[in-house]
Fold these 2 entries.
Entry 1:
Amino acid sequence: MSEVIESGHLHPITAVRRAWVQISVLGWFVWDHRDVFDEIAEKFGSWGLAASATVLLAVLLVTVFVSWRRTAFTLTADHLDYRYGLFWQVERRIQLDRICTVDIEHPLFGRPLGVRAVTFSTASGPTKLAYLGPRAADRLHDAVVAQTGAPSAKKKGAEGVVAHVTAADLALSILLDAEVVLGLVVGGAVSFVPFVLSGHALSLGLALPWLRSAWRATGKRFPQQHGWIVREVEAGYRTEFGLFNKQQYTWQRDRISSITVHQPFLWRSRDWVRVTGGIVGHEDLLLVPVATRAQAEKMLVRIYGPDVLELLDNPVRVSRRARWCTLWWRGCAFSYTDGFAAGWRGLFLKQTVTVSPVSRILGVRLTQGPWQRFHGVGHVTLELPGGTDVEAVNRSVEEAVGIAAAMRRSCVQTARAGTPISRPAT
């Protein structure tokens, strides 16, 4: 049996938060049987009513206490066990080598109580331990990060700020997002057409979905991404963000299967980009919401090494025959070396480039539809963990076959040689 490293119960407020069902049932019972309590008050007086209330309160407190005692965690060198449930006991076991990231959240309503939520992300989805005290959360976070093969992300003296997003830049970047602006304009025009044509106030109800989408695309993003800071630590990188719900997560270099750099149309004058990463358990994990291209390239060099810049400086565009298969054929490109592969997409609203080490490729797929066969082009897809793939779009058949063969050979060679997943700069 593995030695126990950390164990304990969650914060008592957790049981109170989860006891809303018992509190609701108790409240309904009291209200539905209020005539019984009136009879008790008439027959036994105020002492009898107080005794009845004490019994009900004792039952509720015992239920909450037992629920709290049955909610616990145990961390060993191999796995993390999480047990909860009052009548139906549930136990979830997470293998430590399957944990991709460890996130800490400071909920808005939990800050006065000093509680935090710790989330463990795996390929099957996240598991949240809510809530823990600040010391217990930090100890569990550091212990899990240490057991997964990296030093503690909390260690002082090793931190350096990689990226810091100011509130002004974040607000302006949201307003200048071409996809957001176009979606709001088109959606608003369509939503308010019935009101303009009919003049009935009830027709404004059709605009409610648009208002919800507008809030999610603009107003909701600002408090979520406010104060975004990326720090380099010994465990990899730690991201801190949030205006109301303070959150942070630590991601390790060797967990990053791909990095995608997005540049919306209206950001090009300021040379701004958004950086996301493909990590198992996080599909398109946001690494930086807005940064300059120089900062993004510096982050790529820190994660993958200086050789990645040579790849980004030499995109190979598609041939003219691809213009019959896509309107944005001028924005499609692909490039690869012995260690990396990169694919470019987009021309007008948003341009993206996805970079991945060859060692992270799980499979190579060559597809060719009827229209593509007629024009002699095909797609090559490099399948990666984390939900983001690198694509060579509408390449000529000869080139597509050559890319697929080269990527398969590179996969076999790196697997035999045991090439590291990432190549951080020294």
Note: The longest strand covers residues 282-292.
Entry 2:
Amino acid sequence: MLCKPIFSALGPLVALPLAACSPSQPAPQPKAETTPTTEPAPAAPTPPQPTPATDSHTLPKPGELKTFTDWTVGCDNTLRCTLASLLPETSGGDMITLNLTREPGAASHGGGKISLALETRNDQAATKRPPASFAVDGKPIALRDATALAAAIANAQSLKILDADGATLATLSLKGAAAALRYIDAQQGRAGSTDAIVAKGPAASTAPAPPLPVIAAIAPSGTAAKLTATQVAALRKRATCDLEGFTPETHALGGGKSLVIFPCSTGAYNLISALFIVDGASITPAQLDAPAGFEATGADTGTPVKSIINGDFKNGVLTSYAKGRGLGDCGSHQSFVWDATRFRLSEQADMSECRGNIDYITTWRAKVVHP
């Protein structure tokens, strides 16, 4: 479950008190107010307990990304859509990138909100002179005004990111921005309506807002299994692992089962690990409901045993991060949760273009519940 800051940097940067979080993370509930009374209140009947959310058993289908010149765009399964700026192929200067995200649903029903995220971690100037505002064709736009910015760049020629003194920190190409925004209008069902950003029309918006699929996940419990030397050798052979010097990790899943993350091979910036499930004396390859690691990015792992890339298991979430190159500006982030039988994809974010933007676009989300 991802929760990423609207603005980020390696050093102390201007950080707006805003965050863009996955709805898969439950929102905090307000405390109920109580009314003082001078007389003992009658015993209230026990309120009915809420029924746990039912697993929707939805087969994951992450959205695809499309590139329009200098912008990449994609939508997730709820029709939340994001367009992301790309740096020039030969860029060696400005490294700030911009993502604009629009929520699904008709504006008349509270949907269609637009947010922005500036990624500054790879830009040295921005660590000392944080972004403070925008200028679109010379017109100033406030740093937080994502709606005004989206409308302005749809028909503009230049976009500058300015510091507090009005000096230019970065200039972003707007080639393809209008086409990417038009694509979002079409994907969200806004084309020809008053809610559209580019493809405006007179019709009232009926933009849909598909619900999040639900995964009933098992919270980890128990003690992780310990592998014998014989078992380690057997698993290495089964997964055709050629990596020496790495110790397999085991993690308790619950119900007497454990996950084994078995390091198999390395690249320049990727550690590939095979996945197994230990259940008593039985050890079998782990099952996933969606491609992971290099399978998700189209590469062949060379073994039928499922694997993850740069994997980790923490707080019941198995993560995979397949990097397209060392900078990390392309690849796939994934999160999986255990449902007692297999690992289920709860979130995925991708970047198909290796052009400087490390703020990946979310292409799949699910609501995780613990019955």
Note: The chain is about 10% helix and 35% strand.
